[in-house]
Design a protein that fits this description.
transcription cis-regulatory region binding; alpha/beta; D-Maltodextrin-Binding Protein, domain 2; seven-stranded mixed sheet; transcription regulation; two-stranded parallel sheet; 326 residues
Length: 326
């Protein structure tokens, strides 16, 4: 048993995660700063210690066996818990978290997000024992998520604060939720797209005859959300709001977009708004955070919550899309 415990080290679990994410031993070795042969040797040692096969050797890619999939799932959970323990210890000792992970929905205005990041790093703290003031000791880690993926990161413990996401938060133990605001959505196409000259209001059947551009939900465990797609409609799936905007500017498809984002493109003649039979959509967004079982939240998280409590900050996150250029 002790050999197995020794084999299941954070380094081994991190190695498994890197191989699974990158899809090959060579790519994982580059990411970890090792040679592929060292990674292969480490995997064989882990397999010997556990007496299981973790990877299918008949495949050229690093394909996990069922046992490997289970180790990966549990390993990622253990790594998250180890990070959480270190974070709690640091928070108890100083009030500041070692790391603060933010899951940010792609619908948020990037310029407003990075204004907040800049303001956080501009904070100056004077050490208790004296000395020069310095920035907060908390490292920020930003995750870009879409729809259910934003909340999944919070629910699974992979994020400390989730901002945005059109998801009904319901009640989750250890989580707090507050409204972020609403954002209006409008149907837009490029001037050269066939729907630009179509009679209004556009019917669902008319829209369904043309390709729609959809952003992929980043959820892995929760049920992914798909909005605005008609049954049987051709879909171009893209990874981000910026990519969706680029696709629609090129006339590669149609779709619903946040009104603050498309407004300047409509004014410049790069996009055309079309009325539809479907009622105008307004998406209600939230932000949520993890609440410690004992004691207050860390000082880093509290700073972000204080900013989000301000109406001007929430409006900027939803409306200040003018800087989104490709």
């Amino acid at each position: 048993m002790s050999d197995r415990r020794h084999a299941l080290s954070p380094e081994a679990l991190t190695m498994m995660d890197a191989i699974a994410r990158s899809g090959s031993f060579a790519a994982a070795a580059r990411e970890l700063g090792k040679v592929p042969s060292a990674l292969t040797y480490s995997v064989r040692q882990l397999e010997d210690a556990l007496d299981v096969l973790l990877f299918d050797r008949s495949s050229r890619q690093a394909r996990l066996t069922a046992a490997g999939e289970e180790l990966l799932r549990e390993g990622r959970r253990l790594l998250t818990e180890l990070d959480a323990v270190a974070n709690r210890v640091r928070r108890v000792a100083t009030g500041w978290e070692t790391q603060l992970t933010l899951a940010l929905d792609g619908i948020l205005a990037p310029s407003a997000i990075y204004d907040l990041v800049e303001a956080f790093y501009a904070l100056r703290l004077t050490p208790a024992g004296g000395g020069a003031a310095a920035a907060p000791p908390t490292r920020l880690r930003i995750r870009s998520e879409v729809l259910s993926g934003t909340w999944e990161a919070l629910v699974t413990g992979e994020a400390d604060l989730a901002i945005g996401g059109a998801f009904d938060p319901g009640s989750q133990p250890g989580l707090q939720v507050a409204p972020l605001g609403e954002i209006a959505m409008c149907f837009a196409v490029a001037p050269h797209h066939p729907l630009a000259a179509a009679a209004e209001p556009l019917t669902p059947e008319c829209i369904g005859a043309h390709r729609i551009v959809a952003i992929a939900d980043t959820a892995h465990r929760m049920t992914p959300i798909t909005t605005g797609v008609q049954p049987g409609q051709d879909v171009l799936t893209v990874p981000s709001l910026a990519a969706k905007l680029e696709a629609q500017l090129r006339g590669l498809g149609c779709g619903w977009m946040p009104e603050p984002l498309v407004q300047r493109h409509v004014e410049a003649g790069r996009l055309v708004l079309k009325a539809t039979e479907t009622p105008s959509r307004r998406i209600r967004l939230h932000y949520g955070w993890r609440s410690p079982a004992q004691g207050p939240v860390g000082l880093g998280l509290q700073w972000w919550l204080d900013q989000l409590a301000q109406p001007v900050t929430r409006r900027a996150l939803l409306e200040r899309h003018a800087g989104l250029l490709l």
